[in-house]
Amino acid sequence: MKNPKILEQLESWIEDNRSHTILGATAKYIPALANQDPNQLGICIMDHEGELYEVGDVNVEFTLQSVSKILSFIAACDHHGLDYVLDKVNVEPTGEAFNSIIPFEIHRPNKPFNPLINAGAITVSAILPGENIPAKYDNLLAFLEKFIGKRLYMDVEVYESEWKTAHRNRALAYYLAESNQLELEVEEALEIYIRQCSISISLQDLAKIGLVIAYDGFDPISKKQIFSKEIARVAKVLMVTCGMYNSSGDFAAHVGIPAKSGVSGGILAAVPPKWHSDEQAFRKGCGIAVFSPAIDSNGNSTAGTMLLKQLSREWDLSIF
Amino acid sequence: MKNPKILEQLESWIEDNRSHTILGATAKYIPALANQDPNQLGICIMDHEGELYEVGDVNVEFTLQSVSKILSFIAACDHHGLDYVLDKVNVEPTGEAFNSIIPFEIHRPNKPFNPLINAGAITVSAILPGENIPAKYDNLLAFLEKFIGKRLYMDVEVYESEWKTAHRNRALAYYLAESNQLELEVEEALEIYIRQCSISISLQDLAKIGLVIAYDGFDPISKKQIFSKEIARVAKVLMVTCGMYNSSGDFAAHVGIPAKSGVSGGILAAVPPKWHSDEQAFRKGCGIAVFSPAIDSNGNSTAGTMLLKQLSREWDLSIF
Amino acid sequence: MKNPKILEQLESWIEDNRSHTILGATAKYIPALANQDPNQLGICIMDHEGELYEVGDVNVEFTLQSVSKILSFIAACDHHGLDYVLDKVNVEPTGEAFNSIIPFEIHRPNKPFNPLINAGAITVSAILPGENIPAKYDNLLAFLEKFIGKRLYMDVEVYESEWKTAHRNRALAYYLAESNQLELEVEEALEIYIRQCSISISLQDLAKIGLVIAYDGFDPISKKQIFSKEIARVAKVLMVTCGMYNSSGDFAAHVGIPAKSGVSGGILAAVPPKWHSDEQAFRKGCGIAVFSPAIDSNGNSTAGTMLLKQLSREWDLSIF
Amino acid sequence: MKNPKILEQLESWIEDNRSHTILGATAKYIPALANQDPNQLGICIMDHEGELYEVGDVNVEFTLQSVSKILSFIAACDHHGLDYVLDKVNVEPTGEAFNSIIPFEIHRPNKPFNPLINAGAITVSAILPGENIPAKYDNLLAFLEKFIGKRLYMDVEVYESEWKTAHRNRALAYYLAESNQLELEVEEALEIYIRQCSISISLQDLAKIGLVIAYDGFDPISKKQIFSKEIARVAKVLMVTCGMYNSSGDFAAHVGIPAKSGVSGGILAAVPPKWHSDEQAFRKGCGIAVFSPAIDSNGNSTAGTMLLKQLSREWDLSIF
After folding, report:
1. C52 touches chain A (CB under 8 A)
2. C73-118, pLDDT tens digit by residue?
3. Does this complex have an ipTM over 0.85?
4. For residues B267 and B311, what is the distance between their CA atoms, to the nearest angstrom?
5. Which of B43, B159, B222, D140 is least enclosed by beta carbons within 10 angstroms?
6. Binding-site residue set of C for substrate
7. Do C256 and D233 touch (CB under 8 A)?
8. Do B117 and B94 form a contact (C-beta atoms < 8 A)?
9. Torsion of CA C180, C181, C182, C186, to 10 degrees
10. Domain final position from B161, B176, B197
11. A197, A225, A243: which is the final residue of a domain?
């Protein structure tokens, strides 16, 4: 049953934080993203019983962008096992930008630093299960269907827009290909990667995915284990250490919730259950999805980040 | 009361993991460290009631080295408040080595990436409370005395050895000085920094410090709040994201305990209480100290890391 | 008329230097180059009257590879004027490798450092005169025909081999495309670039090209000005400062002849006339071509470099 | 006998180029330099017979700064031989700034890239002949006395100003010390280095030094060989490839005269004799000294560089 006090708080905080949208701007390098209304801010929280708290601009669909990186990582691990995937990609944070080539050229690592920088994400996309690109893409959608009970679809306009302007990702992918770190041809790996980035999702569905991650791969509503606890643990480590681009450390310190952001302005967050005995909101965990398309120079939604900061502080949601 | 089964497990695991010492070597650049017996391995765990589990080579004293970085960060925050300190040093992980100048020169940040790389640690040492170096050093010792009820002392041989060979740290400190990021003269900042690195500690005392961090600054034995929960939270974020040098991400994924290592072979770990209802060891949290001086190329104790990995897996101690 | 003493000296020096081939190896990343006999060493010198001194393995054809970079630079300048080309590419040496992305990402220059690193060479290839790739390629061949009176052709096997394995060059080109520094589509720019690298040439023809560069674009045999003195000056500056990959400075100090090397093992050198009054060999200038396919880690022919060093010392050919 | 037409031209060009001083500013990081009148511009040319052409602000004394790097390199080579010095420092240009640590940390070279970046210059200063700092400094002055027949002295105010603010040079020197590339203690090496930078010189004396370098170490007036031709050759290579900081390539292309600049606004240039038969000014070579303290972001005098560009173009002084 929905707690009315929580809704009330959320409504107040949404208004408090909407003003932070002016500190950011919509992602300019993808025309289809640039044209969104930057003033939107919406949040959707699903508690452990499936109750939904929806406040603000919640009737939206947006593309996953980098949020997809953590989902394809989980999907790849679910199919191949964690060891296989960690043999292709490391789990170390890097202080460089998500699309930097510098660490590769300086350190010549035999695998990307982590699956949440573009190089690592492309590497993981290339090993998604499936004999060819349509099969890989289909398998990813099928995997996500286990979380939300429906088939997601791709925003074709965003896909085409990204495909044409993916120069930097092509540079990264060819760099990986040169050192034999890519299991597909470059153009194929980019196709599956940009397809996954262009998957369109609602706040309600994204919150459900967050809930399953918070519950270590277990769906507390359907009571099914969707993926293993071992994978969930590494996924949450990645979200904490690398999930918010180059302000992941700051987000961990001030919010402390495993999360992954995307340049479309979406944030996926997973609040694990806590033992605290007081009458805390969401003490049995929840999934959170936020959308606000004005992003900062790191790539994170400005108002979305501030809203999560307030939630975490007020409700003591940090895992630290 | 001590649980005999736990002692038995620890004894078996110590022997399992001692062989990993051959994968490392004692730190060569500090003569006083180089000459230690690399085969040592000892662990000390203090539970929430102050019960000590000591197994292996536990009658040792070793210098804090980089373990001191998290302690001086806490001390500085306790005196100045978190905001003041975070104005001098960021909390972002970096993929570069702990003593790298590259990220500074590329990004020209106005503050070091985090207080656990050398540049950040020197910056924090420089703002320890106290009018001069002896006062700052004394205040740090006084702060640590609140955790363990006794005054620690400095290993003069190690201090002198490090002072003479601290070329790289001097390079870093002069680099910081050039961009006005250091609140002391370079040689003074280095003196307090190298002094804190040279503080000698026992496993028993280090475990107690870990317990207080695990309890968010609260000492569950004396029932005193030694430092604030807000500081403890950021300290644990730093330990998870940057505590184990350039394998912090790997350690978080496979161990998942906030920890800080030093090149002397010591590791400080803080296991927060968990809500799990099963009869888990240390479910009410504990502090862990490990010592094994053979370190890997990243600077972490090889056997110590492996031992913590086994503990975490067997007892489910990960916070993720 | 040929000076028999010079031939004698050359024959002796060829034998002296052939042993240096064992210090290098044929370029492994291009299969068609890897399979050459690494023990070959040949030189061809054309004096200002067109007299040819040919010693060693001189009946060879090899692909231009990076030697083509200086030729397409001259061709582009000849068509567009020097200012136009220098608006697209700088003339500064860089300490990084010829295919490095680091300087671009650190400094974000609005143009490549110089036309002899791959990024600069691809940029220049893209502005070769011609409406499309075949026309650009044809115009380059037509320009080279002015030097040697015949049409050069492409080694198709080398071209196909390079096209398939050009991952790093694709990475560079997409990087340039992202910052709008490329006047063609990436795949088109790469096609013209790899075509020019795959042009096959003889030592005799390459020596003639060297002679014209030595004479500031004037052909002392046909008495025609093929390109302007202004362009020749910049070309020679580039050859001295950046012509021998990352040992250009060493080559300038110990050889002092404007030169450009390629990974196929060829070196193009241009010895300008000097005022010295003594009876020096080639005091009226000459063009030199060397071929020896065993290259060092920088990409320069080992025996070829040593042979030029001996020639320069014995005959005082340095411009410094 | 002085050519009046040359004086006339120089006077006109000085006025043409003085306006370029507004494109730069005096070096801010050394207070004693910052306070100079930025509008000054003076040139002094000494021809092969010792005739002096002095135009503009010529009654000035300024500190050598980086101009001293090429002089201490020559002095060190003169004492130890070229091979000994080239064993301590390379002769390769680098695209990074003169005080960058990036190339050291990325490539971990066993010696600095060249003696004209700060790291290389400090390395060379450390091997100047002499048992201690005063002796080394005295020997450098004695060596310079051979060129100009008098003892230079140090600007104590500049020395003290630089000594206090030399944080970046200290960082570089400690970095070198860590990899055992420095033959002196860091503070000693810095003392001799900063002393040499602080030597005060007149335009007339600097022009004479340029003349001797132009004549390959031979003084055409006293008819004495001051240092060997072999050393002069490498010195000129260094001046062409690295003498004008990060616009050395551009200067070589557009001026083409071996030169070395300093942040005080001085430029030392050496015009070697040429064989051209026409009635060219200074066809028998000359030494040039320019002073104009407004420098650009690379560290080169703005008006001084433009003036040399005009001279070279009008009188065809380029060696290329």
Report:
1. no
2. 999 999 999 999 999 999 999 888 888 888 888 888 889 999 999 9
3. yes
4. 14
5. B222
6. 66, 118, 162, 169, 193, 245, 263
7. yes
8. yes
9. -70
10. B197
11. A197
